[in-house]
Amino acid sequence: MSDILLFPPGKEYSICVENCVFSFMADVPLKLGHSVIVSLHDHVSSELFVCGKGSMSVHFDDNDVVLNEGDALLIPPRIRHCSRPSVEAQECCAVSFICQRRQISCGEDVYKKVQHLTESGNIMVYRAHPEMWKFISDFTERRASDSLIPSMDIVGLILYTASLEYETVTHYSGGYSDSGLEDITRMTQLDQIIERNYMNDITIEDIAEKMYLSSRHVYRIVKSRYGKTFRRVITDRRLELARQLLLTCDLTAEKIAEYVGFGSREGFYREFTKKYSITPMEYRKQNSKKDMVKI
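User: That's the sequence. What structure does it adopt?
Assistant: Structure tokens below.
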């Protein structure tokens, strides 16, 4: 399979600076060579991509943004996207974060400085800022032996990003609305768990165990976050990945079904036809590209 992007397991951090609580998960570095496709998805958090070497692109429902070495991209909550490295890509990173105001008296209004990163609804592109990767490099080097200082590296990156000029990208808004910090944090955690495990045989009980919640509580969070059942969320994730693979590689439908997590060819064909009103192979014939990767 061609080299494509994987989000490796991340670690959650939370730190207070004056009147702002920074909660974030950093996936760094993201490299080529051992990966699966990340399908179109959204978050209840903001996400910052930084390209350290080579180039990568981020795809939206209605647009694409290419990042070259030293560039960065800020995606607000509720915007569907997925990332794609180029064949020349070497290093990039993704930081998902939430900024929450603390109701305290303080010397400096830190929250006001970063508020536009999470509430403006704008996709922001930062061009030619190689110093942003320095924050990532420092974080990567120090996080193995320490927890406080590396977290300050990422907070520094967020604050630095908030001070920069940027270009905006036109897009269709996903309609983000505020929730309490606890709900947002749990939804973010739910997004991360599902995105990393939807190809496996995962149950709502498994997620409940990972989130230290009851299955009933997780069921309510899933319904609130996605507006559908947990099984439908997992099935739709698998179908979207299968659809992309049908268009980008020459794996058989049976192999794709197994790869994305369906237990049988029949189940895959039934769900795919129900969602797209066409069989997988008919879909490939009608939509496949000339540069399909040979496996």
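The chain is about 40% helix and 20% strand.
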